[in-house]
């Protein structure tokens, strides 16, 4: 009711790794937050259990048949949650008047339209779905400004940088005296491996990340370093940086989540245990701080912090991403689309691990650059890049 002062939260991608961590943090603060909507693609049993526990006003699944099933389950349990299906329902729960905060935690390009809808509705948007920003950077940031959305990065690196910057971000990096953003990278499960050893690695090996437990797509991206490439592009948009102002530093312990270097020689870092509940809690409560369920960092247990340069020869995806950002326009959207197709093919056993970079490179080379100022153009180029990637995979089979 109107006397309810709690913030209403929509969690897009509630059943995923970020989604479940978000619900964990929200459940610790029932006096601050209530759930407007929870959404999932296909894992309907998990969404049902989440609905029974968190009592959202609305639940959304991808397919009508799953929505019918969930409606039935919830009705029998005496719940009044409205159950809907499809992309238009995602857009609606992301922009509903009833929602104050939207956690954008759908994986991949499927998150673009609902995330943009939240931005255009002027919500507080917690951005985990980096692919949405990579695809539509200029348009996305322009919409944030125009609709006065509050955009808070959840990706741990960008959340760390946000925390290391002055409270007032406007005016660009130079005005803040920032000389460089340092994105830390764990290096993934294949840190130190040679190209020749990488051609035969399996999806399960690639998804066994040393420090973080994440969805399979981002786990593969972490293993190829494409995740760091997407994050470099993400950092350029979020902080209005040039690609050469963003430096990637391999830091295997994943304790420093990223750093900001200033012109006076200072370098500021954000440290913590590798647990996404920290950036999630930060985004939810900003500018305040709330308990996240994360243990304090034990520096004596960490004992040491190591740093090294990334190996761009063995992991060419990082260089490809930097090139795409330098090229501008629709190149990052093309990079992202080709990568999504290639990662899926790798996960289903249809492409070698080292083939991922190859697919992305070929699709980028074959695509002509367009200005990325209109959503239609971006979605068109996304579709074309997917077709190109599929055709290349066909020829390899
Ligand atoms: P995940 O695979 O665990 O979860 C993805 C969620 O999106 C699920 O709820 C799924 O149902 C939903 N989804 C998938 N495809 C969909 C579709 N076509 N339509 C609607 N919903 C769909 O992924 P995750 O690891 O939680 O990652 C989510 C996003 O957050 C990604 O963009 C990832 O890059 C980013 N991110 C994740 C982490 C992490 O630690 N997991 C860290 C930083 C950033
Ligand atoms: Mg990250």
What does this 3D model show about the protein?
The strands form 2 sheets. A 7-stranded parallel β-sheet has the order 4-3-2-1-5-6-7, with helices on both faces. A 4-stranded mixed β-sheet has the order 9-8-10-11. With 397 residues, it is of the alpha/beta class. The model has no long low-confidence stretch (mean pLDDT 96). It has 2 domains: 148 residues, NAD(P)-binding Rossmann-like Domain (Rossmann fold), CATH 3.40.50.720; 235 residues, RNA polymerase sigma factor, region 2, helix turn helix motif (Rna Polymerase Sigma Factor, Chain: A, Orthogonal Bundle). Helix 3 links the parallel strand 3 and strand 4. Helix 6 runs antiparallel to helix 16. The site of nicotinamide-adenine-dinucleotide has 26 residues, from helix 1, helix 6 and helix 11.
What tags apply to this protein structure?
397 residues, alpha/beta, Rossmann fold, Rna Polymerase Sigma Factor, Chain: A, 2 domains, 4-stranded mixed sheet, 11 strands, binds nicotinamide-adenine-dinucleotide, binds magnesium ion
Strand order of the largest sheet: 4-3-2-1-5-6-7
Small molecules in complex: nicotinamide-adenine-dinucleotide, magnesium ion
Hey, roughly how much beta strand do the residues contain? 5-15%
CATH superfamily of the largest domain: RNA polymerase sigma factor, region 2, helix turn helix motif
What is the share of helical residues?
A: 40-55%
